[in-house]
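Attaching the record inline, Q. Sequence:
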Amino acid sequence: MIKTLLFLSFSILGLCFLSCKKENRKILKPENITVDENLSKNDTFKILSKYPELKLFNSEKVESLTRTAHIVQEDGYYESIFYPRRKQYRFFQFSDYKCKTEYKGDTINIWLNNYNGYFGNGVLVKVFNGQFLIQDIDPKTLKGEIKFINSYPVYQKLVLNKYPFQKNDSIYGFIDYETKLDSLVTKNFRGHFRTKIK
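Structure, as predicted:
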């Protein structure tokens, strides 16, 4: 009887452990990109060309003379208020993003973030075979370190001016991305970007 109870207890604990491990290994599904050949004629890009690129810290080497991105990120969360007992939605907006793009093998990495030398916030978009994956950058890192957060995408769309690309091509894009970072925190990331592929 005791052996049976021990066996059942360990079996249940083992299954719980395996199911927790399985949940952490979330499989990301790539989405198809949308191609719009007229995207580069959007008014946002004309406005971006009138402003200098952001300089996020003093020793930063600015790679572009004009702005490379106009993206607004809204992070929201629910805050519990004790009196009266209800939840209140609060949010923060960030709009100081830059775009940097590089080829790695057969994948184009599009970095849309605001890294200032100590921490950053934003996303990495990986484009390959007419599809894309989005990874959220973890702002809680050490200097020079890059980590990603597990997130649960609700909606994601990527529009590019053409596909495929080659090195030194100009890339124009639009991203619309909504995700949940956990049960209380949401992230909305939307805007235009442009740069040259390195």
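The two ends are 68 Å apart (CA to CA). The CA atoms of residues 78 and 84 lie 15 Å apart.

More tomorrow.
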